[in-house]
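ok so i was messing around last nite and threw this chain in just to see what happens. nothing serious, just curious
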Amino acid sequence: MIIHETYLDVRYYETDLMGIVHHSNYVRYFECGRIAMLEEMGIPIHKIEESGIMLPVISVECRYRIPTKMGDRLKIISKVERMPMAKMIIKNEIYNQNNEMVCDGTVAIGFIHSDTRRPTRAPKIFTDIAEKYFMD
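result:
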């Protein structure tokens, strides 16, 4: 299993007229966690794309628990519980500075060839590194 934590501070421009984080930003926070996870694993997205593979988002599910506001410190936890083959499922949890869950959800990422846009399995550049996280 892959588990990664990253932190970020809520910025003013992410809030709405009520002073809370606009709901659309949580999907962006999921992406921040996913990008940081791949970078820490040693396979940043740009390396995967250089190999001729793109990673489109297939679906997003998001459950909002409690609001966050400017200045809150968020902990984003990204988990991949199964070895990605044709797609990667990332479970996300976001907590505030009081360790209260503010949001959770799931993002499904596919793998497609850059030139044909046809689906493919996870590329070797990805699986060679990812498989060590799933060895028992």
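not much to say yet. The helical segments are 25-41, 45-50, 124-130.
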